[in-house]
Amino acid sequence: MLSTQDEFMDRGYVVLEQGLSSLEMMLLEKVSANLTEHAERLLQRMHSSEESATEFYRDHPEELIVVPEIDNALKVCRFEYIKGYNRSVREQIVPKLQQYIKQLTGDEFVLFKDKCNAKNPGGGAFKPHQDVIAYNHLKPNYHITVAIFLDESTVENGCLYFPKNYRDDLSDHHFPVQNTSGGALPILPSYEGGDRHGVIQQEVVNQIEWQAVLAQPGDVVIFDSYVPHYSEKNNSDHSRRAMFYTFNAQGYGDFYDEYYGMKHREFDHPSFHVATPTRHRKSKQ
Ligand SMILES: O=C(O)CCC(=O)C(=O)O
């Protein structure tokens, strides 16, 4: 049987059941409730002033970033910049996640970005993608994300799907690789531009054996930025909220402020909307 570290290196992800305690989950529930309320107020404000998100964020570089659902400008699809906004996350949650990553990789990692996906009923399908495509404009070429589920994540409400082992499935191909601190990892062919920007090409998706990764509140899924993943729409009556904290190796430097500086200045940049069900200016919706 593989150790957790070997499983992570082999497959690109691991699940830590109940990786966060009930106290930590209570804290995150509180953060999520406060920030969701704030995010809803921001969407109302942009809607009633008819100010575009691009204009709003250019003028408010310290604000929580909110992205609405593709078919409803007032419904929060996700919010971001959680550490920038919330001290308890910064001081209590981020250090714990850093410890987990150190146990897996032996290295120190720093926070690169963070977000909470609301995954409302009827919304929120994410097409198969590699996260690294969205980060390629910045120096670190390897990232590790810790996904924390605030709600039970089921097939019905749109859980994540990961490959059993995509590198084995695709071993007959010679896709370009990037040399990273996690090894030589492939960049899979994806569509460029438009609404499918960053979505892995269908013939490659079809060659991968996918599995649903179910999770309870408090479970933690840790995955690198090369492992392909997707999720379906939420077909239940309740939201499936999950937070995603993405880190890069400290040796590359700390990019959190640069990443969110760019996001506040260039809200519509296609790199920030890879394979997501979100509304932005270049979307046809
Ligand atoms: O929240 C989800 O269902 C999927 C999230 C995801 O794949 C992403 O944000 O890259």
Topology:
Blueprint lengths: L3 H8 L1 E4 L5 H28 L3 H7 L5 E5 L2 E9 L1 H4 L1 H19 L3 E9 L8 E4 L2 H4 L7 E7 L10 E4 L2 H4 L7 E4 L2 E4 L15 H4 L4 E4 L6 E5 L4 E3 L10 E8 L6 H10 L20
Antiparallel strand pairs: 1-11, 2-3, 3-4, 4-13, 5-12, 6-11, 6-13, 7-10, 7-12, 8-9
Helix pairs in contact: 2-5
The structure holds 2-oxoglutaric acid.
Tell me about this structure.
- The chain has 285 residues and is an alpha+beta fold.
- It has one domain: Sandwich (Jelly Rolls), CATH 2.60.120.620.
- It contains nine helices and 13 strands.
- It has helices at 4-11, 22-49, 53-59, 82-85, 87-105, 132-135, 166-169, 202-205, 256-265, and strands at residues 13-16, 65-69, 72-80, 109-117, 126-129, 143-149, 160-163, 177-180, 183-186, 210-213, 220-224, 229-231, 242-249.
- The longest helix has 28 residues, at 22-49.
- It is globular and about 55 Å long.
- Mean pLDDT is 92; it is low at 279-285.
- Bound molecules: 2-oxoglutaric acid.
- Residues 117, 119, 124, 126, 131, 158, 160, 229, 231, 242, 244 line the site of 2-oxoglutaric acid (AKG).
